[in-house]
Amino acid sequence: MEQDVAAARGAIDALERACAAVTGHFRDTVDSRRLRVDIARLREDLTLVVGVPPRPVHDPYRASFEAAAYDDGFDQAMDSPGRRVR
What we know:
The protein is an all-alpha fold. 59% of the residues lie in helices and 0% in strands.
């Protein structure tokens, strides 16, 4: 499978180079921009078909992001009795 994916990525690269050569003869138009977007979409679609690489097992930021998801941003210490603004 890895060889097939590499071949597909190589074909997309070749298509991008060929289209860049053709669009170089024309000014920047909606159609030439659309062609570039279509090539980018091919790359993204291939990545989606193959699958996203798995997340690393050790993610030092994961716990802080999960805690932030349930945090409403209200600091309990702000309304403690006896707290004064200096």
